[in-house]
Structures are given as C-alpha cells and as structure tokens.
Amino acid sequence: MAKVLIGFMGSGKSTIAKKLDPHYVDMDTVITDRIGMSIAQFFKEQGEPAFRAIESQVLAELLEEDIVLSTGGGVVLSDMNRQLLAQNQPNIYLKADFETLYRRIAADTVNDRPVFEQNSKEDLEKIFDSRQELYEEVATQTIDVASLSPEEIVEVLV
C-alpha cells in the first residue's frame, strides 16, 4: 500500500514526500500527464465532475503501489476518493492553521495554484474550513506541521 500525504495546499505534501522518497509520486503530475493539459485547463474545458472521475481512477491505481504519494489538496472532496483512502494505511494528514498556510502559499513563487489565485483570502479560508473534517476522516496519522521544519516532520514519520 502507498504512504499517502494529504492536506491543504501549502502544507508541504510534495516537500515531505520528496524527503521521504526521492522517487515519490505526485498525483497531480500523473493526472496532468494522463489528461495532456494542466488541471486548471481541464477544469475549464471538462468541469470538476470529469476531473474527479479521473482523479479517482488514478488514486485507485496508485494506492495499489508501494510508493510515497503526494495528493492534491482537493483529493478528499470526492466520496469515492475518501472510500479508497479509508482502505489505505498510512494516510498522513499534514495539518496547519489557515494563517500559516496562507503565508506559505502567498510566498510560493514556484507552484501554479489556481484555487489560490482565483479566490479571495476569505473564500480560501472557507474552502480550508470545509475540508478539515474530510482530511481528518481519512487520516490514520495527523501531524501539526505549522511550527516544524521539513526535517522535523520526516523525523516524526520515520
């Protein structure tokens, strides 16, 4: 089974996954390769339901592998994905308060984050709040990452 990292954007899923395994799998990259365009573009052209269907298919495939998996922040929005994750261990929720995550995302000049760019801070906080219970529902381990360095987080996990 996969070691799955979940959490809101800016929580460090990709950073931690890379430190745990340099050959980690980024789910968004797999999806982008499969659909042949950016996720943002796919959302515009095909809509969220079509994206979530592909996301569930990719998640089901990846959970069968012995890998470290960094998921997209919205993976928990789909009932199907939560069912798939409920059958997997470990699902590691990298948790932080909204203000910490917002500062990290705002300072990130490398990653393209359409949800961040297209929403006000208040709307982002509502999205954040609406996902917390979903992350907790599927998490088998929760780590508060707000005050930990990536190295300290990895120490907790190994």
Protein architecture, described:
This protein is an alpha/beta fold and 158 residues long. It has 9 helices and 5 strands; from the N terminus they run E-H-E-H-H-H-E-H-E-H-H-H-E-H. It has helices at residues 13-20, 27-35, 39-46, 48-63, 79-86, 98-107, 114-117, 121-138, 150-157; strands at residues 3-6, 25-26, 68-70, 91-95, 141-144. The chain has a 5-stranded parallel sheet with strand order 2-3-1-4-5, with helices on both faces. Helix 4 packs parallel to helix 5. The longest helix has 18 residues, at 121-138. The mean pLDDT is 91. ATP binds at residues 10-15, 113. It holds the Pfam family SKI. Monomer.
